[in-house]
Amino acid sequence: MNKEEMSVRIFKALGHPIRYKIVKFLYDGPKCVCELNEDVWFSQANLSQHLKILKGAGILSCEKVGMNMYYRLSSDEIKNIIDNVDKFVMSFIDNSK
């Protein structure tokens, strides 16, 4: 996979509202799947699919601790991407008034 394809894969993964919400929820550190499931309010199977996509795009990494699986952002650079998009959106909204 080349650089352009990987970039598109990351944007596609972040382009779903639930996956965006998952990434924002993980801003402050790793969370157990059970915590993510409480926040997202989906079936475990649906949440697992979203996590798989985020992990496949390199956005998340995971670690099993005891009986629980913990997910975390793979890099703080992901926060920078989200924060920059949020700033762009706010600027766009402000300039559209």
Automatic annotation (TrEMBL):
Signal peptide: none
Highest rank taxon of the organism: Bacteria
Keywords: DNA-binding, Transcription, Transcription regulation
Record-annotated HTH arsR-type domain positions: 1-93
Gene3D superfamilies assigned: Winged helix-like DNA-binding domain superfamily/Winged helix DNA-binding domain
Keyword DNA-binding: yes
Annotated GO MF terms: DNA binding; DNA-binding transcription factor activity
InterPro entries for the chain: ArsR-like_HTH, HTH_ArsR_DNA-bd_dom, HTH_MetalResp_TranReg, WH-like_DNA-bd_sf, WH_DNA-bd_sf
UniProt entry tagged with the keyword Transit peptide: no
SUPFAM superfamilies in alphabetical order: Winged helix' DNA-binding domain
Pfam families: HTH_5
NCBIfam families: HTH_metalloreg
Protein's recorded name: ArsR family transcriptional regulator
Organism this protein belongs to: Clostridium fermenticellae
